Amino acid sequence: MREPEITGEGANKWRDKYLDVLEAQEQQEKAYQGDLQLLAKALARVSLAAEGQHPELDAALERLRQSLRGDDKHSIGQHLQRLEQALLEFERFRDKSAAEQSAALQGMAAQLLSLAPERALKKQLRTLTQDATRQRDRLDIYPGLLRQLEQLQGQVLAEKPPQAAKNNGLMARLLGSGNASSPQDSAPEDDLATPSAPATGAAAGKADRALFELNPNATLRDSETVSENLRGIINELLLSVEAQAIAPERVSALQKRLRLGLSNADLLPALGEVRDLVLAAYMAATRAFAGYLTEVNQQLADIYQVIEGAAHQSSDLQQASEQMQQQMLSEFAELENRSLRAENLDELKHQVQSRLGNIRAALHDYQNSGARDHPVTEQLSQLAERIRDMEQEASRSREVLEEQRTKALTDPLTGMPNREAYIERMALEQQRFQRYGHPLTLAVCDLDYFKKINDTLGHQAGDRVLKVLSGAMAKRLREVDFFGRYGGEEFVIVMPETSAQQAFVVLDRIRAAIAKTAFNYKETPVDLTVSIGIAAFSAGESAESVFERADKALYDAKAAGRNRCMVANGEE
Ligand SMILES: Nc1nc2c(ncn2[C@@H]2O[C@H](COP(=O)(O)OP(=O)(O)OP(=O)(O)O)[C@@H](O)[C@H]2O)c(=O)[nH]1
């Protein structure tokens, strides 16, 4: 068959169309080539900018650039693959180096904190440390943090004469080097009457600022003794775990060594001993509980066996038995389930006890269902007896756990609730505040010139003051108020159903009473005053934010001359 002939006009039309398409394609290709070149240029620039981070990454980037220039026979695809590997390696390296930088920043901040700078600087240093911890993956923040640290360092060092910093190196302060207090240290900082009693020695004079620093170049002399602060911390640690119960001789030997004063050579072994005692206490508790659970399991297995045997008895009995078996199986399943979900020992024990109670009730029902005359009943009643014993044991364990919990929430020095207890109580009060909207006020209270008491009368006197003062304040508050030690010489007071103004009236009365009270330490009068910052919760406000405002008000009270209460701005 013949092809239809294309006329001259038709042929022209097709050619024009073809030429148009060809031109459009050529332009597209040109544009594509242009984009490709721009992309290659941009990639080369970016790769140059990324240089200097890590040697392997640099090498991979160089190869990529060569390939982009066409100097390399390998394809870009191969180089990109290698680059990806180098980037993964770099990411690991970057995380590690971020962690190291963060640790170094924190270490530097800790050193400055150990020089006991004034409150505002101390606070800024702590914030900086928190920032370095919270955002440690963000390398871009480090230059800013370093600049901040540099400024703070300048301010701290301007505050502390370099001489004092040099003579009282951190390690020396930690260990109470035996140097006499420098005149700067013992000079009164203010117009408060200086108590007439002589300082109780250099160790006591400097102990207050002790912080532990690992300094590989520190020179240690055997005559140096561990500062009172460190001793206090170790003692508190021993008191707060059950070490006394499991290794009383080791604990009293360690306490004796601490009382007599540790030489530098003894310091590390003593810390090792503390670590071992704490671990031993923990392991003993874990072992005891594991033993208890094994016993529970054994009991449950015994019960199950007896019930299974009973399942083949008379039909009435069999029905009762099957019913009980069902109940038991579901109790076992529930026990297993809840044990897995339990978040702490206390909860776990509670679960075990309540499940055992259910199993016992099921046994009781079974015994009352006509099974009394059956020989298996005797076995069951023996088992029930044993389960009762176990329940009593579980209840005793709960009491012990409750005691431990109370200990964990109590500050061992003052016997007052500690910061953990404050956090717990605050969360509760905040929930109530959100639900009912009744006024809720927080106050932060700080002893004035406490460092001077430590410096002039010694650390033990300081401890005594903290104890007496906290008792004096707590007893003047209502039952519903919360009073706790937040840390150091700082206390917190949570006052439900109280506005900032009402809190001011109460707390200012307490402040005045403290200022008027004659405190004595070994017959030496001690002037005690407190400054208090007060802030009331406003709708939707977080506990941290209220604390910050109360703390700021406390700063203001200090700055305005101390021995006063101040309400946070805008609440008067
Ligand atoms: N004895 C004793 N001293 C402590 C304890 N905790 C913190 N300190 C000391 O309390 C002192 C607080 O000193 P600073 O923060 O300078 O405050 P301050 O001397 O009270 O001065 P202002 O608060 O500005 O009036 C430091 O010397 C700490 O070592 C403790 O448990 N016992």
Would you kindly provide a written description of the structure presented here, covering whatever features stand out?
- The protein is an alpha+beta fold and 572 residues long.
- The protein has 3 domains: 23-167, no CATH class; 285-408, no CATH class; 419-567, Alpha-Beta Plaits, CATH 3.30.70.
- 68% of the residues lie in helices and 6% in strands.
- The chain contains 21 helices and 7 strands.
- The strands form 2 sheets. A 5-stranded mixed β-sheet has the order 2-3-1-6-7, with helices on both faces. A two-stranded antiparallel ribbon has the order 4-5.
- α2 packs antiparallel against α3 (76-113) and α15 packs antiparallel against α16.
- It is extended, with a radius of gyration of 37 Å.
- Bound molecules: guanosine-5'-triphosphate.
- Guanosine-5'-triphosphate (GTP) is lined by residues 116, 119, 208-209, 413, 446-451, 454, 459, 462-463, 466, 488-489, 558, 562.
- Residues 116, 119, 208-209, 413, 446-451, 454, 459, 462-463, 466, 488-489, 558, 562 line the site of guanosine-5'-triphosphate.
- Residues 380-407 form a coiled coil.
- This is diguanylate cyclase.
What's the total number of strands? 7
What is the class of the largest domain in the CATH system?
Alpha Beta
Number of domains: 3
The parts where pLDDT drops under 50 for at least 5 residues are 162-225
Main beta sheet: 5 strands, mixed
Strand content: 5-15%
Report the bound ligands by name, code or SMILES.
Answer: guanosine-5'-triphosphate
Distance between the termini: 106 Å
Question: What series of H and E elements makes up the topology?
Answer: HHHHHHHHHHHHHHHHHEHHEEHEEEHE
In the CATH hierarchy, the third-tier topology of the largest domain is known as Alpha-Beta Plaits
Shape: extended
Helix content: 55-70%
What is the alpha-carbon Rg in Å?
37 Å
CATH architecture of the largest domain: 2-Layer Sandwich
Number of helices: 21
> Strand order of the main beta sheet, please?
2-3-1-6-7
Structural class: alpha+beta
Mean pLDDT: 75
CATH H level of the largest domain: which superfamily?
Reverse transcriptase/Diguanylate cyclase domain
Enzyme class: transferase
Protein name: diguanylate cyclase
Keywords: Coiled coil, Nucleotidyltransferase, Transferase
EC number: 2.7.7.65
